Amino acid sequence: MNTSEILNKTLAWLYIKEQEVPGTMWDITGYLDSIGEQHQSEAIGLELAERGYLRTYYRYESQNIFNAAINTIGIQQVAPEEVFTLTQIVLNTLNCEPQRFHDISDLPGLEAKAWLQLVEFTRYLLKQNWIEAKVLNDKLLVKLTIEGRLYLKSYEFIA
């Protein structure tokens, strides 16, 4: 199996695990062992991190263990339609009242997400410059930016 296939399979496995127990780090070494690639756990883990696909990771060099959690950019590699659809739902909802800050946990598509998933998705939208965010009274509030509105407009012309 080539490195690209191993990376894609590992990302898909991390995505499935994220759906099962959100916000948890998983030992990719055990997964790679199940597909006969355990000797590559550190190299694969570091490559995923370097490509920006991991929210967090930790290496236990002495035990040959590599724990990792996937981020939204990693999810986009294995389930692009999910990230695209969720982005469209959230930005279109924010566009209904673009001048107002909204509690991220109240937005359609996000209300059932775990806190770490909300934070990770917010981080993704912030990196794209599609939203502004602030914390107020233990709530994560978001608002659409001009760039977010332009992004939505670009999809109006495609549809």
Verbal overview:
This protein is of the alpha+beta class and 159 residues long. It has two domains: 73 residues, Arc Repressor Mutant, subunit A (Orthogonal Bundle); 79 residues, Orthogonal Bundle (Arc Repressor Mutant, subunit A). The strands form two sheets. The protein has a three-stranded antiparallel sheet with strand order 1-3-2. A three-stranded antiparallel sheet has the order 4-6-5. A hairpin with a 4-residue loop joins β2 and β3. The termini are far apart. The mean pLDDT is 90.
Summarize the structure.
With 159 residues, the chain is an alpha+beta fold. The chain has 2 domains: 3-75, Arc Repressor Mutant, subunit A, CATH 1.10.10; 80-158, Arc Repressor Mutant, subunit A (Orthogonal Bundle), CATH 1.10.10. The protein is 53% helix and 18% strand.
Features:
2 domains, 7 helices, Arc Repressor Mutant, subunit A, 159 residues, alpha+beta
Rg over C-alpha atoms, rounded to the nearest angstrom: 18 Å
Top CATH class of the largest domain: Mainly Alpha
Total beta strand runs:
6
Supply the number of structural domains. Answer: 2
Quick check: average pLDDT?
90
Order of helices and strands: HEHHEEHHEHEEH
Distance between the termini: 39 Å
CATH topology group of the largest domain:
Arc Repressor Mutant, subunit A
Q: Poorly predicted ranges (pLDDT <50, ≥5 residues)?
A: none
Number of H- or I-type helical stretches: 7
